[in-house]
Amino acid sequence: MNPKHIALISSELGISSRQAENTMNLLSEGSTVPFISRYRKEVTGSLDEVQIGRIEDLQKRYKEVDERREFIIKTITEQEKMTPELQEKLEATWVLAELEDIYLPYKPKRKTRATVAIEKGLEPLAKMLFDQQDGDTTAAETFINELVATSEEALKGARDIIAEWINENAECRDKLRKLFTHTGKLTSKVVEGKEEEGNKYKDYFEFAEDLKEMPSHRVLAILRAESEGILFSSIAPVEEDAMGIVNKQFVTGKGTAAEQVGKAATDAYKRLLRPSLENEFRAGAKEKADGEAIDVFAENLRQLLLAAPLGPKAVIAIDPGYRTGCKVVALDNQGNMLDHDVIFPLEKNYKRDDAEALLKKWADRYDTAAIAVGNGTAGRETEEFVKKIDFGKKINVFMVNESGASVYSASEVAREEFPDQDVTVRGAVSIGRRLIDPLAELVKIDPKSIGVGQYQHDVNQSNLKQSLDRVVVSCVNNVGVNLNTASKHLLAYISGLGPSLAENIVKYRKENGAFSNRMQLKKVHRLGEKAFEQCAGFLRIENGDNPLDNSAVHPERYAIVEEMASKQHCSIQELMGKDDLRKKINPKDYINEEVGLLTLEDILKELAKPSRDPRDEISIFEYAEGIHKIEDVKPGMVLPGVVTNITAFGAFVDIGVKQDGLVHISHLSNKFISNPNEAVKLNQKVQVTVLEVDAMRKRISLSMKDSNEKGGGQQQSSGPRKEQQRKDKPARKEEPLNDFQAKLAALKNKFN
């Protein structure tokens, strides 16, 4: 473990050296982020998953710097140019850009104008001019030879050499880098003749903004337009300011030699320094914009994966359609397909009656608790048809976001699950399963196909995948999975498992029946002690040998719970079921060398609510009546809607037409911006006011501000907002998205 890495990480993250070192040790031993966060709080000082992930990333970054530094030192040493001062400079920096600046003069070069001039013997002349003594230019005549025809050619070659020296000067590059940082602007112009083709980018046809102030979506939009050949862009500070820095450092005289150095300085900036730094800042801006876009995508994905589940109940799922009909499937409470068919509820003939009869028959035969309707084409019409059916019992109808269902239905996973069914049946199954358990179903789909990000195809794909994979792992382990019913795709995301061990677990279940206790995991092929340690606490067994197996209490701490129960003269089951028994327990009595107060408090919380699902309770939502297509939407209407996507510039809301409306960040309610407890969330039910409708361009502009925030009178609603909460349990209060909402607040301030 490198002590310098520990010091750097603790300083950057504002944590103690002990926290950084202990966490780095756990990661190096193969512990996963969810396991460390949940079961090693004493060791890390209660660091959360985000902090542990940052430690992992920073450790990787500093290792890369070390490897690059080692290569540079080796290269310069082999050139026999290493000095104690140079070695000290190289050892002192932990920024790759600074490291490369120091290395630049020693970096093996391809043929340049400067190297050509040096080959012609002009380096001594360059040194003479660089000293800027009067009369040095006359010496150029003495460098005329068979390779240099005139004194002017000699001076030009000398200037090329000086320009390269200026370009390689680390101090000058550092000063210019600071100028680019503080005053650099990103400007863009339309490529001549591309105005019509690039109309959607017209806001950037003549554009300039301070780079440090630009939000990620603008940077990515300009870069995308540039890659499509619509725009050309540049990043630079005011040229006079940049040249002032270069001239002040290198043009120190007033004679003819100083004039030559001044010309070389201008050439150095325009030909070498500016393009180099522009590329660096372009890459940096792209990286920063990527990071912000990926953060938004990751947070959206987290909310989508943790959407409220219906739970294990029998469902009928409908994938709506007009001409080809609606694909309908019946699923049991575990999502297994029981039946499938095609109905035509939207035709004005006997087929409509047949559709109603089939749904009634299935609802009775399969004891259906709910019906899921995909929100794609014909979704609203199909939903209305189903809601009018009298099933003789209460069957709730839910609109389900079907983004990515077609991707799943054509995937290898779907073909493996339903080899004898076509893609339409598989798609309907996916819609139904998303209602039963969104997390279990969505893990089968590439997150990029779910449609909750911005510019996902423009950002660094490796970083995007890493971030989204982390979110999926975090969500799956946060919720926990049923060891006896979870698919191999869901099990693969459990801490310490992966695809191979997940498949082995499913195979063991098929050959030996259901697991009755967690210790049986050790019988699974290739699942060793380390994997068991990492995964056991996140796997649940209902009605098993030990009630603790259906909780988040780790098997390594079962002995403590047994001791607690013994001292209360009761069973573990009784301890978990009776508050008065648990209240008698003083956790401090059980602290030892391995277990601290944090872990003991977690254990007692888990005993009080074993296997509690952290997700919200599902609620029924209804769109406004009579609003089916964009032509039905008029400015001034107040409509119920569902948040379908959150971006850096606002939120998209589904109001029941085929096109989602945009609530620009400037039209988010103040409560969503200023109050972290009221953060706007994916799948949130909201009320919006229609500001503008552009049917031709399929754009709807919405506002979430209430009448007081707008300063106007109360708007009249065009349709009722019907949202019915489940009666058996009140909805849990959603956790605030402080970090994400802070970013939205910062972006809103920029617009203001």
The total count of strands amounts to 17
Low-pLDDT runs of 5+ residues are: 712-752
Largest sheet: 5 strands, mixed
Structural class based on helices, strands and sheet pairing: alpha+beta
Count up the helices.
Answer: 31
Q: How far apart are the first and last residues' alpha carbons, in Å?
A: 47 Å
**CATH C-level name of the domain at 619-751:** Mainly Beta
The amount of beta strand, in percent, is 5-15%
Overall pLDDT confidence: 90
**CATH second-level architecture of the domain at 619-751:** Beta Barrel
Side by side, the strands of the main sheet go 6-5-4-7-8
- C-alpha Rg, in Å? 33 Å
GO cellular component, one term: cytoplasm
Region (Disordered): 702-739
Pfam family, one: HHH_9
Biased composition (Basic and acidic residues): 720-736
Q: How do the strands and helices of this protein lay out in sequence?
A:
Layout: H1 3-13, H2 17-28, H3 33-39, H4 41-44, H5 49-78, H6 84-92, H7 96-103, H8 113-119, H9 123-131, H10 151-167, H11 170-183, E1 185-190, E2 206-210, H12 216-227, E3 231-236, H13 239-250, H14 256-305, E4 315-319, E5 326-331, E6 337-343, H15 350-365, E7 370-374, H16 379-387, E8 396-400, H17 405-409, H18 412-417, H19 423-436, H20 438-442, H21 461-479, E9 481-482, H22 488-491, H23 499-512, H24 529-535, E10 539-540, H25 558-567, H26 572-577, H27 579-583, H28 597-608, E11 619-622, E12 638-647, E13 650-654, E14 661-664, H29 670-674, E15 685-694, E16 699-703, H30 707-710, E17 722-725, H31 738-751
Parallel strand pairs: 4-7, 7-8, 9-10, 14-16
Antiparallel strand pairs: 1-2, 1-3, 4-5, 5-6, 11-17, 12-13, 12-15, 13-14, 15-16
Biased composition (Basic and acidic residues): 720-736
Region (Disordered): 702-739
Domain S1 motif: 636-705
